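INFO batch 0412 | record 1 of 1 | parsing
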Amino acid sequence: MPGDFLRVRFQLRADDRLARFVGAGDRFGTIELDNAIYAGAGQWFEYLTFVGGETDPEMTLDTRSAIEVLDCWTVGGDPPVYHAVLFVDEVPEFVLSEITRCRALPHRILLEDDRLRVVATVRDWNHLKEFANDLERTYAGFELLGTEQIDDIGFPLGGNDLKHTVHGKLTPDQLLVLEVAYRMGYFRVPQEATGKEIAEQLETSQSAISERLRNAQQRLLSVLFGSQL
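INFO prediction complete | emitting C-alpha cells
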C-alpha cells in the first residue's frame, strides 16, 4: 500500500568489516559504492566513484591484498573524480550483505569523514526497529539520521545509475566534457558556467568544447532513446 514504506538515513563508524575500500577513505573526499554484484565465496564485483585525492584509486588500492582493480578511469573535474571497477574479497559483515540480510533495500552507500552514510528503505516502523537493533549489535557507532514515509519504494542501489552503463558507449573525451560541464554548473538553470569557462578548465578552444558537448549529448541521448538492437 502507498505510504507503508520508510526511507531511512543512517551512518556507521567506518572499519574494514563494512567494506574493504574503507581503509583508503582518508585519501579521498568521498567514496561511493554505486553498485555491487555478488560473485560467490564472499567475493564481489564493486563499482565505485572516488572524489578528490592526490593519487588515483588504482595506485591507492592495488597494494591491498583483498582488492583487485579491474578498471579505473578519471573524468577530470576539480576536485578530480574517478570511477573504478573492483573485484573484492569481503568479510561476512560487509555492510551491503548486512543490509539485505535484514531485508532492507539499499539505495546509497557513501564513505565520508570516517563515516559510512547509508540510505535504505524498510517496510514500516517495526521493521525499522528490528533493522536498527541488528545493525547496532553488528557495528559500532550506529546513528539514525532521519526517516521519511514514502509512497514509491524507488530504485535499489545501482538500479537507476547511468555512469557505468554509458562507460564504453561514450568516448573518454565525451565523458570528460560532460562531467566537467555538469560539475561546473553548465547545465544548471540559471547557468553557472559558460562554454568558454569549460574550455579554459580543459585547456582547449571554446569551439572545440561546443562540438564535443554536442557530440557527447547526441551519443548519450542515443543510449537512452536509440535502437536497442
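INFO post-check: The chain has seven helices and eight strands.
INFO record closed
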